[in-house]
């Protein structure tokens, strides 16, 4: 009985300390391993990208235009954006104008999009741990469109958020 009470207490303390938004999405505070951060840095160096900054999570980014307005999207925000997603070999795996709830997407976008405001333009270099990790992403026919452990590059314009 004592172990059960202790276990419940630890559970409650752990979950009460997690920062959670009102829509049910939590800040995960995921940090990419040093090896992945180095792989992104090596890619940037080999591509002569000298203006990218590194976030504490290991995400690299270039803000081309910070946008205008006040505030930035949060995890509960509906974001409307135009983007191109590609792999480091230049293969474009997706290109669209779309809308989604920020908290419902990959960690790299959750951490990168709040760096800009409406009308902003950003380029994100996302290590695998902040994207799809060791999982292949496949299309409806079973073909791999994003191989496991891929660094993703997103060129994004934030059209709007609310």
UniProtKB/TrEMBL annotation:
Origin: domain of life: Bacteria
This protein's UniProt keywords: Isomerase, Rotamase
Domain PPIase FKBP-type: residue ranges: 76-162
Reactions performed catalytically: [protein]-peptidylproline (omega=180) = [protein]-peptidylproline (omega=0)
PROSITE patterns, A to Z: FKBP_PPIASE, PROKAR_LIPOPROTEIN
GO molecular function: peptidyl-prolyl cis-trans isomerase activity
Enzyme class: isomerase
UniProt-listed Enzyme Commission number(s): 5.2.1.8
Pfam families linked to this entry: FKBP_C
Family listed: Belongs to the FKBP-type PPIase family.
Protein name (database record): Peptidyl-prolyl cis-trans isomerase
Species per Swiss-Prot/TrEMBL record: Niastella yeongjuensis
